[in-house]
Amino acid sequence: QKEVEQDPGPLSVPEGAIVSLNCTYSNSAFQYFMWYRQYSRKGPELLMYTYSSGNKEDGRFTAQVDKSSKYISLFIRDSQPSDSATYLCAMASQGAQKLVFGQGTRLTINP
Amino acid sequence: EAEVAQSPRYKITEKSQAVAFWCDPISGHATLYWYRQILGQGPELLVQFQDESVVDDSQLPKDRFSAERLKGVDSTLKIQPAELGDSAMYLCASSLARLGEQYFGPGTRLTVT
């Protein structure tokens, strides 16, 4: 079993829809949680960075962390075609101090 | 806006040849990372530097891969000899400190024929 599980998709939704992306993990020591967006043939771009549990909002993006369920989510409101990309979750523990990435979910927003 | 620079962007090489990638992190970032990303998967850490010192190279295939960051600024990743299975995107990232926000470069796409 991988430490971080992420549904690879692909996920296709119409423009304006609310998108929900999720990851589950098995390592209870993870405390730092990140979401990256990666366009085709580009490097990942940091979207959200959260520590421990709770919610964080930035514009149309909201990140949620539920440590009790070992589950994190990224919500995209009013989705745009420019949001079409692969979304990667990543997490780290204080001890190991290195990021473990999910497989990535490929998202397409249809105009 | 400061960015991580990588070169070359694309590299095609024959198996058994040597290949090298270069990375220049964001100015002032003490921590530098090299990742390998196989198509359809997430990045996997190969090596992590804190200044000029290696702090994690547990996933680096040391029989053929080497990495250095001699002056604690830019870094080079080398593969010798390259194998077909090394075809992947090689990403460099940097952060101000360990466990800080990591910023990625555009990557080098390597194809081994």
- Average pLDDT across residues of chain B? 94
What fraction of residues of chain B sit in β-strands?
Answer: over 45%
- Distance between the amino and carboxyl termini of chain B: 37 Å
User: How many individual β-strands of chain B?
Assistant: 11
Name the chain pair with the biggest interface and residue counts per chain: A-B, 24 and 23 residues
Query: How much helical structure, as a percent, in the residues of chain B?
Result: under 10%
Order of helices and strands of chain A: EEEEEEEEEEE
Task: Give a count of the beta strands of chain A, DSSP E runs of length 2 or more.
Answer: 11
Mean pLDDT of chain A: 93
- Please, how many helices of chain A? 0
Structure, explained:
The complex is a heterodimer of chains A (111) and B (113). The mean pLDDT of chain A is 93. In chain A, strands 2, 4, 5, 9, 10 and 11 form a six-stranded mixed sheet that branches. Chain A has a five-stranded antiparallel sheet with strand order 1-3-8-7-6, with no helix packed on it. Chain A has no helices and eleven strands. Chain A has 111 residues and is mostly beta strands. Chain A is globular, with a radius of gyration of 13 Å. In chain A, a hairpin with a 6-residue loop joins β4 (30-38) and β5 (45-51). Chain B is mainly beta and 113 residues long. Chain B has strands at 5-7, 10-13, 19-24, 31-37, 44-50, 53-56, 65-68, 75-79, 88-95, 103-104, 108-112. In chain B, strands 2, 4, 5, 6, 9, 10 and 11 form a seven-stranded mixed sheet that branches. In chain B, strands 1-3-8-7 form a four-stranded antiparallel sheet, with no helix packed on it. The model of chain B has no long low-confidence stretch (mean pLDDT 94). Classes of the chains: A mainly beta (111), B mainly beta (113). The A-B interface holds A 4, 6, 8, 32, 34, 36, 41-46, 49, 88, 90, 92, 94, 97-99, 101-104 and B 4, 6, 40-45, 48, 55-56, 91, 93, 98-99, 101-107, 109.
